[in-house]
Write a structure and sequence with these properties.
The structure is a single chain. This protein is mainly alpha-helical. It has a single domain, classed as Arc Repressor Mutant, subunit A (Orthogonal Bundle). Helix content is 61%, strand content 12%. It has six helices and three strands. Strands 1-3-2 form a three-stranded antiparallel beta sheet. β2 and β3 form a beta hairpin. The longest helix is centred in the C-terminal third of the chain and has 27 residues. The protein is globular. The model has no long low-confidence stretch (mean pLDDT 91). Keywords: DNA-binding, Transcription, Transcription regulation.
Length: 119
C-alpha cells in the first residue's frame, strides 16, 4: 500500500482514516485513555457496526500501523486493541472534528430556533 500512496498528503490521510468506521474506532480507542479494548468493548461503543465491518477495519488499521492487536494465549481466546504511537498522533485530528461538529450542531440549532421564531 505504501508504494502506491497518492502525492497529496490530504488524500493520504483520507486513505488511512477517511471511512466512517475508522474514525469511530479511533474515537473509542482515544476515549479509553490508553486502555486496550476488547472487540466487544469496541463494538458496544459504535452504533450499528457489524462484526464483519469492525473486524475488517481493525485489520486494515493494524496493517496501516494505527492500532496494535495483542492476542493472549488462553481459552477462550482474548484479543485486545490499542492505539500505536502513530495512531495516537491522530488525537488532535479527532479533537478538531469533535469541536467542529459541536460548533455545527449549535449553528443548526440556532438556525432552527430563528426559523421557529419567524413562523
Amino acid at each position: 500500500m505504501t508504494n502506491n500512496l497518492p502525492e497529496c498528503p490530504v488524500e493520504i490521510a483520507l486513505l488511512m482514516i477517511g471511512e466512517k468506521w475508522k474514525f469511530l474506532i479511533l474515537r473509542e480507542l482515544i476515549r479509553s485513555h490508553g486502555k486496550a479494548l476488547r472487540f466487544s468493548e469496541l463494538k458496544s461503543g459504535i452504533n450499528n457496526i457489524s462484526d464483519k465491518m469492525l473486524s475488517k477495519n481493525l485489520k486494515i488499521m493494524e496493517n496501516a500501523g494505527l492500532i496494535s492487536r495483542r492476542v493472549f494465549a488462553q481459552v477462550p481466546p482474548k484479543v485486545e486493541y490499542s492505539l500505536t504511537e502513530l495512531g495516537t498522533t491522530l488525537t488532535p485530528v479527532l479533537r478538531s472534528l469533535f469541536e467542529w461538529g459541536t460548533m455545527y450542531k449549535q449553528y443548526v440549532e440556532n438556525k432552527n430556533e430563528k426559523e421557529n421564531e419567524n413562523e
